[in-house]
Amino acid sequence: MTKYSFMVFAGACSYGILSTLVKLAYGEGYHTAEITFVQALGGMSVLWGLHLFKRSRSAARPRLYKLMLAGALIGFTSWLYYRSVQYISASAAAVLLMQFTWMSVLLERISGKRAAQPGQYICMIAILGGSLLAAGPGIGSRSDLRGIAFALASALTYALYIVSNTFFSTETPALTKSAWMMTGSAVLMLVLVATGDGLVHADAGLLKWGLLLALFGTILPPLLFSGAISRIGAGSSAILMTAELPVAILSANLLLSERISHWQWLGIGIMLTAIAALNLVKKQA
């Protein structure tokens, strides 16, 4: 595995542990809006610090309001995803989030950005079938429908974020884009905090969880991806990024003692294979 492939793999693994960290934060009494706000604020501070240190200059002046709107979208994705793990298991939430893979294909088709191929529809059906097995009891009759709704909504907003990024100029440095996007995310989270429960727990514990989520969710992945995806290609990167799912399942099993059956592992295998095939078909198309 080359250095750049490992960077993409490591970024995906960072995303994979987020649902487990959020579950642990909930166990200490913190709520969604406050941990998401501290995460966005911490990520924004670090990214702007790196941006100013490197003194990034872009060949094309970015439309800042578009970048901030995209950041608000990814921030809202995090908020929805974190809300989902209040009601369903972390592993089930991770499985449902991965539905963004086929949702993004359909959105590209609707937007006219790219026409879907017959092979892609077969892969999407396989992803759905694998998801039913992989989610296991997390979306069974005992689960809370609100958790399922929040997780699927986060998958949709994540797909919207991915598709919207295809319309941005590639000449704008990744660090610049990430800093402005995280600013938009922080602004939205501030609004949610102000209009919701507020910062009920403004203490060291909240700072700990917020910074951990910022490190693994908004700082490391963008930095790793921006330096590696262009080197190995989008198709190979998308396949490596499927590592997020097994890491999410394993971290939930090890740190939260969530049981994983053989049927769930079979479903995960089907999902990962179908996602890899979906990205290969997209690359060929």
TrEMBL record:
Keywords: Membrane, Transmembrane, Transmembrane helix. The chain crosses the membrane at residues 37-53, 65-82, 88-107, 119-139, 145-168, 180-200, 206-225, 237-256, 262-281. Residues 5-134, 146-279 form the EamA domain. It comes from the Bacteria. InterPro entries: EamA_dom, EmrE-like. Pfam families: EamA. One of its GO terms (cellular component) is membrane. The keyword Ribonucleoprotein does not apply. This is EamA family transporter.
